[in-house]
Automatic annotation (TrEMBL):
Gene3D superfamilies: Divalent-metal-dependent TIM barrel enzymes (3.20.20.150). Signal peptide: none annotated. This is TIM barrel protein. Residues 67-300 form the Xylose isomerase-like TIM barrel domain. InterPro entries: Xyl_isomerase-like_sf (IPR036237), Xyl_isomerase-like_TIM-brl (IPR013022). It comes from Spirosoma terrae.
Length: 309
């Protein structure tokens, strides 16, 4: 009698005796893929993978620039797949809606080239900010950033980038920002509807939209709202932290290393672990030690709630 017949016969016996049939299931531990910039130099895909493995990262930033040759792109893509590393994103940081026409033109080309690289290397997404009308700071605040005309321009430019590349594997995403679109889950949904492209997606950085004492103290609810409204569109996340200075009477919110602020990483990891293979990428730290400390903190939060990071 084979195993299948034995199981079937036992089920008949259990039913006849009016005994409960217990189903055995294998429950995989929820996990989040963590990644960070590599500050050490590497030469080739094997050394790149070795550095990622050394720090127990299961996600990575794109290791190549847009002018990389096709065979090199393929080599890194193959190495990542073989090592079970998700390439989270290709950064296209630039200002495609700049009031400076030359700067805007250069930025749009950078976005197109970066999206093409993302498609070729198999990254989850290519990410940029929507841009700014600030003539001095490419990602700075400006009164016109929230105008109807600017919203329409963001839609037009984003469509142009996606339509030029026509990606089928990757996505183009805009990072949440405090002073430009998208600046909230609802404004992101507006953009998704207006842009109307299947390959437009969400890049989630909740710290970027903690912009007041109210959102600072209720950031758990804000994170939960982001996942509730945007979850199915999210392709990559950034992990940072934030403090509210207490010795001044004008609110000052300051970015800091994960673990030194008040961002609710229990909520962040819990919600992110419900999505499949969406990376959490550290950024903006200046030393390897700082990245290791941030990773250790986030993993400790994961351990407390049963999430493997």
């Amino acid at each position: 009698m084979n195993r299948r017949e034995f199981t079937k016969n036992m089920g008949v016996v259990m039913t006849a005796l009016n005994l409960p049939i217990l189903k055995t299931t294998v429950s995989a531990k929820p996990f989040v893929r963590l990644g960070a910039p590599l500050l050490e130099r590497f030469d080739g895909p094997d050394e790149w993978i070795a550095l990622l493995k050394k720090d127990r990262y299961r996600a990575a930033y794109c290791p190549l620039k847009t002018d990389a040759p096709a065979d090199q792109i393929k080599a890194y893509q193959t190495a990542a797949k073989r090592a079970d590393i998700v390439i989270a994103e290709v950064g296209a940081w630039s200002n495609p809606i700049s009031p400076d026409a030359d700067m805007a033109r250069t930025a749009i080309k950078k976005c197109i080239d970066s999206l093409a690289l993302s498609e070729a290397i198999g990254a989850n997404c290519c990410v940029n900010i929507s841009g700014s009308k600030n003539p001095a700071q490419w990602a700075g605040p400006h009164k016109d950033n929230f105008s109807t005309a600017t919203f329409d321009q963001i839609v037009e430019v984003t469509r142009r980038i996606i339509d030029e590349v026509k990606p089928t594997q990757t996505y183009f995403a805009l990072e949440l920002m405090p002073w430009s679109y998208p600046d909230s889950p609802d404004s992101y949904l507006r953009l998704i509807k207006a842009i109307d492209r299947k390959r437009f997606a969400v890049h989630l950085d909740p710290m970027n939209i903690i912009d007041s004492p109210r959102s600072f103290f209720s950031n758990s609810a804000l994170i939960k709202e982001c996942f509730a409204k945007l979850g199915s569109y999210i392709r990559s996340c950034h992990g940072k932290d934030i403090i509210l200075k207490e010795d001044v009477y004008t609110p000052q919110l300051v970015e800091c290393r994960p673990g030194l602020g008040q961002l609710d990483y229990t909520m962040f990891l819990t919600e992110l672990s419900k999505l499949k293979n969406i990376p959490l990428m550290l950024e903006h730290l200046s030393t390897m030690e700082a990245y290791q400390q941030a990773a250790t903190y986030i993993r400790s939060v994961g351990d407390k709630v049963g999430i493997d990071v």
